[in-house]
Design goal:
This is Wax synthase domain-containing protein. It is found in: Membrane. One of its GO terms (biological process) is lipid metabolic process. The chain has 375 residues and is mainly alpha-helical. Helix content is 70%, strand content 2%. Helix 6 packs across helix 11 and helix 12 packs antiparallel against helix 13. The N terminus is likely disordered. The chain is globular and about 60 Å long.
Length: 375
């Protein structure tokens, strides 16, 4: 039985489970478990194929010094058929992951969280197996590339799938802008002040700040569980951001930076920049990245509303507006980023615009207890 035949098994199991006369809850748990496990299987298969390409790349280099020159000639060290297979596995796995909420739907709130996580997983898979198949990430150790061999291929696959920021690879997220010392006030202050604001001034704007805190705490906990040895946190004092650009680039969670760059920013910048110039390419790249991020969050938010298209489109528009604001503040303040006036203006806009979206969504929330709390 080959790899393609094996990939059909989850679909057959799904059909059996759907027709099995079990309780609704039990059937839902079994369905989702099988589907999620099969999606992990497909993801591993795609990244495993990526490791085979890497092994082909590093194999000759480990035999003799003279063979190092061959690595600079791509067609000499990777197999096009293997690269094609890796991309196919990646696309199938990503599509499968994105379809999970439709195959095994839960409550609106649970589905919202599942969609947000699964979209990020699909983006990670496409980033590794499609965008980087021509030049797979290199595993690093003490600043030097480690050749991928048959012995450490499992470690290569495991680390790529487990690490949120690829700390062990040459594509690791840059930490240059986080070098300055952390402030105690910005680290612990928001966790005390924001809940008090929500209690004494319960409105959409303060609830938005509370949501930021909850996302921060939840994702940082998940990152710690997945990658306890990582020397860098996923977030870095989000409320200390002096601009929209620095908020998304430096202070907010960075696990999506890799796939937003490879799937949106880089292709748009390349295509537009080649035709209209470097500056136009940068503008297109920024807007493409925020559009993809808007689609991600809009798709996740849509399922909690009785008017999903309106809610999803509103969330998408918020992210597009942030992309425009990044370009505007870059043009207005140029190299003088993070001043007091800019800090006040951009935070006021972010809080006001998100509060407006929350107020528009409150009446259409499809979660009774959440609607009662909001309204």
């Amino acid at each position: 039985m080959n790899e393609y035949q094996i990939s059909i098994i989850p679909s057959l199991l799904f059909v059996v489970v759907v027709s099995f006369p079990a309780a609704a809850l039990g059937r839902h748990i079994i369905q989702f478990s099988i589907l999620f496990a099969s999606s992990i299987f497909l993801s591993v298969l795609g990244v495993y194929s990526l490791s085979l390409i890497t092994t082909k790349a590093s194999g000759p280099a480990s035999r003799s010094k003279g063979s190092l020159k061959k690595i600079d000639q791509p067609k000499k060290w990777y197999d096009l058929s293997l690269e094609w297979k890796t991309r196919v596995f990646g696309i199938v796995a990503a599509a499968y992951v994105l379809a999970l909420p439709y195959f095994a739907p839960g409550g609106p709130l649970a589905e919202c969280v599942a969609r947000a996580i699964l979209f990020a997983c699909a983006g990670k898979i496409l980033d590794l197996t499609v965008a980087r198949a021509h030049k797979p990430p290199k595993m690093m150790e003490r600043g030097k590339a480690v050749p991928v061999t048959d012995r450490n291929r499992r470690q290569y696959v495991w680390l790529l799938l487990r690490e949120c920021r690829y700390h062990s690879f040459d594509i690791a997220t840059s930490e240059k802008e986080r070098d300055r010392p952390a402030s105690t006030i910005w680290t612990f202050g928001p966790g005390i002040i924001v809940p008090l604001l929500v209690y004494f001034v319960p409105c959409s704007e303060t609830r938005f700040l509370l949501v930021l805190l909850i996302i921060h705490a939840g994702m940082e906990t998940g990152h710690t569980i997945l990658h306890p040895s990582s020397p860098h946190p996923l977030f870095w004092q989000p409320f200390a951001a002096g601009s929209i650009s620095s908020f998304w680039r430096t202070h907010w969670q960075q696990d999506a930076a890799s796939f937003l760059y490879s799937l949106a920013y880089a292709p748009a910048k390349e295509v537009v920049g080649r035709r209209f110039g470097k500056q136009a390419g940068r503008v297109a790249g920024v807007m493409a990245a925020f559009n993809l991020s808007g689609i991600w969050h809009g798709w996740a938010a849509a399922c909690v509303s009785t008017a999903p298209w309106r809610t999803g489109a509103g969330m998408w528009a918020l992210f597009v507006a942030h992309g425009v604001l990044c370009l505007v503040e870059s043009a207005v303040w140029k190299d003088r980023q993070g001043g007091l006036v800019q800090r006040i203006l951009v935070w006021a806009f972010a809080i006001w615009s998100t509060g407006m979206w929350i107020r528009d969504t409150e009446e259409r929330v499809d979660v009774p207890w959440l609607k009662e709390y909001l309204v």
